[in-house]
From TrEMBL:
Belongs to the Mediator complex subunit 7 family. Component of the Mediator complex. One of its GO terms (cellular component) is core mediator complex. This is Mediator of RNA polymerase II transcription subunit 7. The keyword Nucleotide-binding does not apply. GO terms for biological process: regulation of transcription by RNA polymerase II. PANTHER family: MEDIATOR OF RNA POLYMERASE II TRANSCRIPTION SUBUNIT 7. It is found in: Nucleus. The keyword Kinase does not apply. It comes from Theobroma cacao (Cacao). GO terms for molecular function: transcription coregulator activity. Component of the Mediator complex, a coactivator involved in the regulated transcription of nearly all RNA polymerase II-dependent genes. Mediator functions as a bridge to convey information from gene-specific regulatory proteins to the basal RNA polymerase II transcription machinery.
Length: 173
């Protein structure tokens, strides 16, 4: 039995045979998936919402509502976490059999910290995108200034271009 090194292309490649002559002959791409879908046996959704702690079955340690002071709450939870870790160390020394409750409390604090940080992800993504776009604008303005400086140093003498030597060095660097 002979085997091929590479499998044959999928049968729908024939739909694109006239693409170079007529790009409109190719079929339209499928519409984006909306709602829930199944992939590799798992059910996923296209709604990008952060589930609340209550939906996850976790008690929320910080105030509910849209006007949460993230900085204050993160600091508060961090201090509480430090305190609980010290208490856990004390319990492990004094009463090692009673550590489970302290570990559960620490786990609850970590879940709340994690949820607060995930709530900040959209803001972080927006800020990162703004920063990237500002850098792109800055690079393009710098490139434009370099081109203007280069063009200013070029002079035409008949059909020949004469460049000033220091501009050539700047342009090549």
């Amino acid at each position: 039995m002979a085997t091929a090194t590479y499998p044959p292309p999928p049968p729908f490649y024939r739909l694109y045979k006239d693409y170079l002559q007529n790009p409109k002959s190719a079929p339209e791409p499928p519409p984006p998936i909306e709602g829930t879908y199944v992939c590799f046996g798992g059910s996923y959704t296209t709604d990008d919402l952060l589930p609340s702690l209550e939906e996850q079955g976790v008690r929320q340690l910080y105030p509910k509502g849209p006007n949460v002071d993230f900085k204050k709450e993160l600091r508060s939870l961090n201090r509480e976490l430090q305190l609980h870790i010290l208490e856990l160390a004390d319990v492990l020394v004094e009463r090692p059999s009673q550590y489970a409750r302290r570990v559960e409390e620490i786990s609850l604090i970590f879940k709340n910290l994690h949820h607060l940080l995930n709530s900040l992800r959209p803001h972080q993504a927006r800020a990162t995108l703004i920063h990237i776009l500002e850098l792109q604008i800055q690079r393009r303005k710098q490139a434009l200034e370099d081109i203007k400086r280069y063009v200013a140093g070029v002079s035409w003498k008949g059909s020949h271009v004469v460049m000033e030597p220091e501009l050539v060095v700047v342009w090549l660097c």
